[in-house]
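Handoff note, outgoing to incoming analyst
You'll be picking up this chain. Sequence as last confirmed:
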Amino acid sequence: FFRVIRRLQSTARPSARVTEEEIMRDTPTHYRAMAWWLYGCCGMVFGMVALGGITRLTGSGLSMVEWKPTGIMPPTTAEAWEEEFRKYKQFPEYQKHNNDLSMSDFQWIWFMEWGHRMAGRATGMVFGLPLLYFGFKGAIPRKLVPRMLGLLALGGSQGLIGWWMVRSGLDDNERFGGEGRVSPYRLAAHLSMAFVLYTVLFNTALGLHTTQRLMEMVPSAKLHRQNLLNRIPTSFRIASVGLASLVGLTAFSGAFVAGNHAGMIYDEFPTMGGKFVPEDLLNPYLEPKWRNLFEHDTMVQWNHRVLAMATLGGVTSTYFWSRLLVLPPNARMASHLMMAMSTVQVSLGISTLLLHVPVPLASAHQMGSLTLLTLSLWFAHTLRSTLPLAATATMAPGTTVAAAAAAALTVAPEMPKLLRAIGSDVVEEGEDEMESID
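Most recent structure output, in case you need it:
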């Protein structure tokens, strides 16, 4: 197979290797730029989640009792601060929890919430302005246009969801507002949408980055990588996706722990009240019974513990399963990091519980969940088939004859059989090609 490719190359030009000029000509440079732009947006969302967690943990989220799409400038005079403080005093959080709050303390929590809101607007600008630029240049692939518009709409709606959440804590007529806290359902919706936004941004960036790298590889290196991927059982790929979903579900349950302040009870591990299943797991006064899953602090914490241990078990079993397989280097690296991070995350969770939820540890635990989700998404991505992406990329106008031949072969129905028939000598030849690229 490689002899046929090289013969086509020699027919197309005197040199038998793909030149750097041809590689760069066949690669749309905007793929690289768009990938790094989306990675930057992921970093902004990551920071937003971190800042939002600190805002919640410090009790700052209800300090601003008004919301405007364009934002609110901070007060600049003592009279303006007194007026802002007077508005805050009218709501349940101050009356039931913070009635000894000083002006300086109020200013601190006000600026925490203000910073969180302004960071959200900055994130929207970082995403929206480059999106207009790439759209004007015609650089966005047609298949990605609906996704990009969906991301823009989802990011824009986060501000509305955030205010909808805050409003639940300001309404004295609602159950949670009367208690001086926001609805755990709305808090979970706000945090979950942030995780969904991050997931789609990260997967899109990975797809663009991988496509761009594949387009810079010679056909033999692509085939060698595909040969490795073809040896991975389908069940292992499915397990990697299921594991990422389990990480997301565990983070979702953590939002209800935060919303119900469920981390403040049973500061012991691994038991709860000396038992693995606590006696007050169900609140008999909550009707219908399913509300215990989301509102009863004992069951909420127990659910999060069970899901966390299931996630650790899933990561551990997947890691040892991966040791039995031949994986691409980036997949191997992802499995190592995921195993290490899951151990760190469980340690952070236990420490946060035993130490009665200190802000630094609780914030680190929330960031750990997003870090573990990132690694699980990367791990699942590294196991995807790469040749169809390469075929799409190399069939662009101006593609070399050899690259076109390789692209045609990648979409052939009998490609898996061909790869298995290449033999060990061709695999070694592909490894030599990979080393030359490195």
